[in-house]
Predict the structure.
Amino acid sequence: MEVIMTSSQSFEHPLYYAKEIETMGRESLETLQLERLKWQVKRCYESSEFYKERFDKIGLKPEDINSLEDVIKIPPVSKQELRDEQLSHPPFGRYVVAPGKDWRELHPSTGTTGVPVNTIWTEKDVENITRWTIRTMWNFGARPGDIIQNGFSYGLWVAGMSCHYAAKTMGCFVLPIGASMAERQVDYLLNPGSTVLLSTPSFALYIAERLSKRGIDPPDISLRIGCFGGEAGAEIPPTREKIETRLGIDAYDYFGLAEIGPTCASECTEKAGIHWVEDHLLVEIINPDTNRRCNPGEVGVLVLTHLTKEATPMLRYWTNDLARLTTEKCGCGRTHARSEGGILGREDDMIIYKGTNFYPAQVEKVIRGFDELDDEFRIRITTDEKTGIDVITVLAEYKSKEIDNDVFKNRVKQAFREELEVTPGLELVEAGTLERTMFKAKRVEDKRVKAG
Ligand SMILES: [Zn+2]
């Protein structure tokens, strides 16, 4: 059976970059997914000792995967298992399926949560990733001729390179500025006048702050679109609104991760959730308690399977990210499933406090809903020396010292109570006190005294 593995033909339709694949009926899409899934499972079993051992351990054979639902029979792979595999079989582990002569690029994960996990791209992988990243930018409304300011870090991090390839292939003028300092970003926004900005949402807010300090207002810049990834934010309503107002643009969210790919899902102009590239990925939302698939709309852990990746394919990669999924047709006409609200948090970011759990993104929503507060914040978790219980304090920045009083603080606390169902402590500090980052912002400071 000949499985066509290239991404898709590009038609450059006014609305869709690859109309045929993006608006394909669900039945045809699922037929294509199954064909590719079987191909992937077979080659993983035959060419990777890592996968073969995992299959053999439970007596599973590639022939047992006959439907998309059957994928649940395959044990999920965690990041830690990939790390362990790399350590026991250095340097890349035995999950590399393509032969060494076909390797073209190495892209490890950022290592923000431990030892980086290496992923490799073949020529075909580079081509597919480029095509699906073009789809992401096209979804946002970027078109040939746009001036794209790529504020993602270049080098090993996947997003910088893939966005660069995509912008160039699409026929745009790329400014490979990377995560340079904000002042330089502002210079390029003004001259030659970028029309599309790619960065993390935190960095976009920081650039906006610098622009405003120079007395420059949105009408003075040519920026039209912002593509924001690397962390949640663009889909948190107050954050999106702030970025859009301060930069005078449409802000869009997209999601990617090193182990899978730089732009696995992105919003369309409907801003109704992120559309997955389902011709390249099989998306599952799993209830971590039952290990069963969640119903449409239910929140669970995102588990992704590569359908076309050649070099380091992942079969059921357990992302730890939380999302929901719907296959209802979107207003944009695309049929690929969407996760409404984007990535809702990480399973390991969940904060348990006084018997309730919440995520940093919910704190962000509250903080950014107050105009009196600046954008940056921290969630500090400590242990009360006397009682041994956890104490959570949110640090936020006031724009004017006048609001550092109980009346205002109680308003914020009330908003916390409504959003989180618990009320953490609140400490206000002067604007600019908390460190701004260009990269993924680390906003939870866990200073708890660990038991034992
Ligand atoms: Zn859509």
In short: The chain has eleven helices and 20 strands. The longest helix spans residues 26-47. The chain has a mean pLDDT of 90. The two ends are 57 Å apart (CA to CA).
